[in-house]
Amino acid sequence: MAHTYDHPGELAADDPIRLLGIREAPLSVDEVFAAVGDDAAGGTALFVGTVRDHDGGVDVARLGYSSHPTAEAELRRVAEKVAADFPVRALAAVHRVGDLAVGDLAVVVAVSCPHRAEAFDACRRLIDDLKHEVPIWKHQTFSDGSEEWVGAC
């Protein structure tokens, strides 16, 4: 059966961006998930990025994120583009900065849409564009004493 899109719930919300932030405080999956709750959404996709204990075959000893002063404005621009390209009912994205430990949440993004395929696609675009376009940098120190800066995270 073909979908009919004449119900308002099948369309993007007028103001779907519910939560955006670059924070030093620990992130909460529950906060992000609650922010994208919408009665018209049949699908919610959520991505959680965590600090892993290795990178490129080397053990990570410490990790820190820093951001440019324009990072929040760029995050909003990315979120607005995703909301314009998909029928987003609700969207949220938060990224951590500062020193993080292995297992800490580094980024949490979520998107609710009328249907699951749209939610998956919009969430993937949101995290991919955030990583490539928002000026957040990762500084890794490895167990062998070497270190590296990684471009936009």
Mind telling me the C-alpha Rg?
17 Å
Number of strands: 9
Give the biggest beta sheet.
5 strands, antiparallel
The multimeric state of the shown protein is single chain
Q: What this model shows, in words?
A:
This protein is an alpha+beta fold and 153 residues long. It contains three helices and nine strands; from the N terminus they run E-H-E-E-E-H-E-E-E-H-E-E. Strands 3, 4, 6, 8 and 9 form a five-stranded antiparallel sheet that branches. The chain has a four-stranded mixed sheet with strand order 1-5-7-2, with helices on both faces.
Write the layout of secondary structure elements.
Elements: E1 17-23, H1 29-35, E2 43-50, E3 54-55, E4 58-67, H2 71-85, E5 90-96, E6 98-100, E7 105-113, H3 116-133, E8 136-142, E9 147-152
Parallel strand pairs: 1-5
Antiparallel strand pairs: 2-7, 3-4, 4-6, 4-8, 5-7, 8-9
Helix pairs in contact: 2-3
Descriptive key words:
9 strands; 153 residues; four-stranded mixed β-sheet; five-stranded antiparallel β-sheet; elongated; 3 helices; alpha+beta
Give a summary of the structure in a few sentences.
This protein is α+β, with helices and mostly antiparallel strands. Helix content is 26%, strand content 39%.
